[in-house]
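User: Can you predict the 3D structure for this chain?
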Amino acid sequence: MAVRESDAYANLLLPVRIERARLSEADAGLTTELTYGTLRLRGYYDRVIELAANRPAADIDPAILDVLRLACHQLLSMRVAQHAAVDEAVSLAKTVGSNSATGFVNGVLRTITRTPADVWHERALASAKTDDERLSLEFSHPQWVIRSFRQSLAAEDREDELEQLLAADNIPPHVSITALPGESSVAELDAHESEYSPVGATLDRGDPAKLDAVRHGTARVQDEGSQLAALALSRARPVAAGELWLDLCAGPGGKAALLAAEARVGGATLIANELVPARAQLVRNALQVFEPAPEVWEIDGTSIGDTHPERFDRILLDAPCTGLGALRRRPEARWRKQPKDVADLAELQLRLLRSAVRALKPGGILAYVTCSPHLGETRVAVQSVLRRDGSLRAIDTPEVLRGVTRVPLDLPEAEHVQLWPHRHGTDAMFIQLIEKLDESAE
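Assistant: Here is the predicted structure, written as structure tokens:
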């Protein structure tokens, strides 16, 4: 309900609620599956509810719809006893709705229990009027997101992987951990080495907070794709002592921590910047393991190129984006964004990118990163800046990562790197390294 009413982020709010409720590990796992599963498959469940209730989901009281979705997840996707799921839903309906609402909930759910889950699946898909609507119902993604994914895959001549990608978005990811260089090592972690990241490890199960290194802040929970985005910049070439690095949009601080560790090992200095005060505090928290901790600014990133021109040797621009590449771990994000958001964000991304270019020293390297595969947030943004500025050169980013990863990434021929959940087991991170040419050196 908090996600629906106040745009809360489930991955931030749920752990707090679980800890406050002092749930056992088993109950915490059940609660997580109930919450994430319901949010993830909301689109499919809404169609089943519409068919069972014989009315549009939009006409149902939002709080009652939440109850029905939660029950649908138990009835159609979990091994919860039907009578228990229905009884709990009716009890929940009493707390959020009227007496008549409880009868409605009971009736809809009794209708759903009379038909097997696979038959409901067939009925829901049969109600689709187009192929995109069928995919939207089968994999519970908005149709505009499906179209954007298809375009991004088609740009790699891999449009036939669309259903694999959509399916991968509905599989909760393993917990991935970064061992901060110079602070801890993968060997210290009770986990498997990551497939690609040389500083990464993967937990099959269990609470990562129970690992000593995670508790002490010398290792962090971080997607392997995010690790590779930071390492592409820090290991693009040998670090010269005295280099100054900038993480332009650093919140909440995961990549900043990895860059700070890499900078310390190489004799460089990192400055992190985050405009939003609450997120800036998260960055400070993420960096407090270092002594001294890197400086954290709270400056509008679009102006840093003017206030600090040609100051930084390396800049990470992890640009604000739709987050369509992280739908596995942020299940509600697929319903939160609209096509208009892409256009609004693309304008901001370009302004930040141009500011980063101005702040970059001649000869310096910029990493443009988004957690989205949408072409408007990735290739289009990079190409726009490269076309307008003759002082910039796209670096062969796949070649850089070939020198970083444990095993080669499956990538098409291109100067950028686009990671994918279904192909690489990471978030769909886009990474493009750009060099500002040093004309004086010529």
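The first strand starts at residue 175 and ends at 179. The mean pLDDT is 96.
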